[in-house]
Amino acid sequence: MTTLAVVSAGLGQPSSTRLLADRLSAATVEALGGDVAVETIELRDHAHAMVDAALTGFPSGAFRAAVETVTDADGLIAVTPIFNASYSGLFKTFFDVAGRDALDGTPVLLGATGGTERHSLAIDYAMRPLFAYLRASAVPTGVYAAAEDWGGGEGRLAERVSRAAAELAASIDGRPAEAKADPYDEPVPFENLLAQGTRL
Fold this sequence. Notes:
Structural class: alpha/beta
CATH topology: Rossmann fold
CATH superfamily: Flavodoxin domain
CATH architecture: 3-Layer(aba) Sandwich
Shape: globular
Radius of gyration: 20 Å
Distance between the termini: 55 Å
Largest sheet: 7 strands, mixed
CATH class: Alpha Beta
Helix content: 40-55%
């Protein structure tokens, strides 16, 4: 059975971060099309234990089980709110405690939420370098959801969620992601264009 870990660093309850995490996990399960065990970890529930682990160097109790769930999973979905143009401290602390080698080669889908689209690049300039350092394998499409995406923009959000989930499922399965047909794969030969008198 495939195991999928979902890390949500939302602070509220409910939170848009958890909502995005749930949508990404549901789409990934659908894309995998088989038996998938999904374990969602709300970091806010482990905040005190994370501080203790950061100080002592040893996670314990329920928090240790949460770390092991992530490190043992076949794939990971990691979603954080964006504060001050980067991931949250709660999010960073979790992966600091998990350790540098914990995600070596693990396929990861990156997601983030924020108030405006101005922070959408945080996935690429903040989150990707973190997971590259951890030697995880982040899929090409990251999903950022701004406040307007939960209103009239949900169609665009659904498209990004579906594409990213398909990439994660393909990475977990060890197969290349299904690429869209490229209209330039079979161009008209240059000689034919000249023969038709086509202006270039």
